[in-house]
Amino acid sequence: MNTKSIIYGVSLGPGDPDLITLKGLKVLQEADKIYYPGSLFKSGVKSSYSLSILEHYKLDATKFEGFYLEMDLARVKVSKLYDLTFEQIKEDYKKGLKIAIVSEGDVNTFSSFSYLLEKIKKENFNVELIPGITSYALAASEHLAPLCLQNEKLIILPRVQTEAELEEALTYFDTVVLMKIKSAMGVVNKVLSKGNYFVNYSEKLGTKNQFIASNLEEINKRDIPYFSLITIKK
């Protein structure tokens, strides 16, 4: 095994290519191989948010290696893809390469990289993670609305399923961030109609298609995309 081999988990930030750390960009510029995640749809179409960010950095595209995730409830196909991708990474590691595996947002927050990290740690490979800006941090900046102050409590909920779940969060926390909200808007609307809340909605943050709003009526006219979130404050 080459002692110079190393694997980096690199956070790309939420969409704006400038919102990467200096360290993260330096690693990408020096990497021998760059793995990036994407989505494979039933139609066969491939799409990668990470690749769209990577393309701004004028890197050598021959270093890019995509792994496209086909989502299914049982996650059988996804698990197999992680296994296959890791076998490729392992071969690169044995060659003594400097490997970067990127993730949009923060590499430790709802990131596909975490599944590969589990395998990397089992092999005791040399690995380093570079944290990044999350979508909800950028949302707070775009809305000019701090997430929390002093002793206020913050909770992040993905795919909230029931009114009771959201109501409980709003009872015990000052700020509630809802992510992966496409299927949750019915629940959100019912709960928000019962009280007085400040609501900030954001979609496709940091891209040319960014949209933000604080009016629930306006929000409900949107075709909610995957890359969207809502922040609720009492």
CATH class of the largest domain: Alpha Beta
Mean pLDDT: 93
- SSE pattern, N- to C-terminal: EHEEHEHEHEHEHEHEEHE
Low-confidence stretches: none
User: Percentage of helical residues?
Assistant: 25-40%
- The coarse silhouette is elongated
- Main beta-sheet annotation: 6 strands, mixed
Radius of gyration: 19 Å
- Structural category: alpha/beta
> What is the CATH H-level superfamily of the largest domain?
Tetrapyrrole methylase, N-terminal domain
Beta-strand content: 15-25%
CATH hierarchy: architecture of the largest domain: 3-Layer(aba) Sandwich
Number of H/I helices? 8
Write down the CATH topology of the largest domain.
Cobalt-precorrin-4 Transmethylase, domain 1
Number of E strands:
11
Number of domains: 2
Task: Tell me the span between the first and last alpha carbons.
Answer: 55 Å
Give a summary of the structure in a few sentences.
By secondary structure, the protein is α/β, with parallel strands linked by helices. It is built from 8 helices and 11 strands.
Write structural notes for this entry.
With 234 residues, the chain is of the alpha/beta class. It folds into two domains: 6-130, Tetrapyrrole methylase, N-terminal domain (Cobalt-precorrin-4 Transmethylase, domain 1, 3-Layer(aba) Sandwich), CATH 3.40.1010.10; 135-233, Methyltransferase, Cobalt-precorrin-4 Transmethylase, Domain 2, CATH 3.30.950. The protein is built from eight helices and eleven strands. Strands 1, 2, 3, 4, 5 and 6 form a six-stranded mixed sheet that branches. β7, α6 and β8 (175-179) form a beta-alpha-beta unit. The radius of gyration is 19 Å and the shape is elongated. The chain starts with 5 loop residues before the first strand and ends with a strand. The mean pLDDT is 93. Keywords: Cobalamin biosynthesis, Methyltransferase, S-adenosyl-L-methionine, Transferase. Residues 7-219 form the Tetrapyrrole methylase domain. It holds the Pfam family TP_methylase.
